Amino acid sequence: MRHVSVVVIGGGCAGLACASTLKKNGIDDVVLLEKDDEVGGILNQCIHNGFGLTTFKEQLSGPAFAERFADEARALNVEIKTGAMVVSITEDKKVSYESQKEGYVTLQADAIILTVGCYERNRGAVQIDGMRCAGVFTAGQAQRYINIEGYMVGKRVFILGSGDIGLIMARRMMLEGAEVLGVAEIMPYSNGLARNIKQCLEDFNIPLYLSHTITHIYGKDRVEGIDVCKVDEHMRPIEDEKMHFDVDTVLLSIGLIPENHLADSIQIQMAPKIKGPVVDENFMTSVPGIFAAGNGLHVHDLADYAAKQGNKAAEGCVRYLKQTSQDNAYVNTNAGNDIGYVVPARLHQNQLPKIVEMYFRVKKPIKKGTIVIKCGDEVIRSISKENLVPSEMEIIPVVTDLILEKKQDVTISVEDVVYA
Amino acid sequence: MYDIIIIGAGIVGTMLAKDLSQYRCKVAVIEKENDIANGATMANSAIVHTGYDPEDHTLKAKLNVEGARMYEQLCKDLACKYKQVGAFVVACDKEEEERLLVLEKRAIERNIPYEWLSGEEARSKEKNLSLNITKALNFYTTAIIYPWQVACGCMEVAMDNGVELYLNHEVTAIEKREGSYLISTTKGTFETKYIINASGISADKIHRMVDADCSYTMRPRKGEYYVLDNDIHYVDHIIFPVPSSKGKGVLAVPTVYGNTLLGPDAEESEDTGTSSKGLSYVKENIQKTMMNVPFHKVIRTFAGLRPSSTSKDFIIEEVNGCKGFIDVASIESPGLASAPAISKYVIEQFLKDMMLEKNASAIKTRKKPIVMAELTSEERDAVIRENPLYAKIICRCESISEGEIIDCIHRNCGARSVKGVKKRVRPGMGRCQGGFCEPRVVNILARELGISVLDVVLDSEDSKILTQENRI
Question: Tell me, what's the ipTM?
Answer without folding.
Answer: 0.95
